[in-house]
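Researcher: Good morning. I'm working through a list of sequences from a screen, and I'd like to move beyond sequence-only analysis. For each chain I'm collecting a predicted structure so we can compare shapes side by side. This is the next one on the list. No need for commentary yet; just the structure.
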Amino acid sequence: MTGEFDKSIDYIDKYTQQLIVEHAMKKSIKEKLEKDLTSKENELEEVTNSIDILEQVRLLLQRASEYAREQIKQQIEMLVTHCLQFVFGPNLEFEIELNEFRGKSSAEFYVVSTYDDVKIRTKPQDARGGGIVDVISLALRIAVIQSTDMYKDGPIILDEPAKHVSNEFINNVAQFLKQVSNVFHRQIIMVTHNQYLSEISDLAYKVELKNGISEVTVLNSE
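Model: Good morning. Structure tokens for this chain:
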């Protein structure tokens, strides 16, 4: 009888250990899925923000007269092209295609890449990944601000600009922002985790959460 009882105890112990291992594995899978979900939600939010910027540009172009619309179109193309070339090199251009349908204007956006004198025209999201989209989105924000009278003065406020731009090109983004600030005489206020972008600033603060309290320190000041 004692032997059978001991066997039952051993079986229960082994089964309990098995359940513990299965629980740990399922918990790990659950945490990974939650992390993936959060990441996808963040990506969706970034795409939604980019779409909002594109819609603002479309509305801007729709409301302008034909002549003014063409002038604004050229200004936006020039600024965004300058930004793309400044960051990624001279082989990229930005184009806006205006269309009229039932009395309403619409605009399509394209990136033109030149390879050995061959031009390839693609949508921004199809041109070399997220870095291109980030830089275009950044340039369009600046173009919208500079092409309207609604926001003549005041700073340019940016939240994690060029988040998907690789380290190979991020320093170029930093220098472009510096140039924008100097040319347009605008202060740039930026939230970023990127070291390159924070190092070009005249004044930078580091915010850390410690024991539930935000701690602010000055990184650099000129």
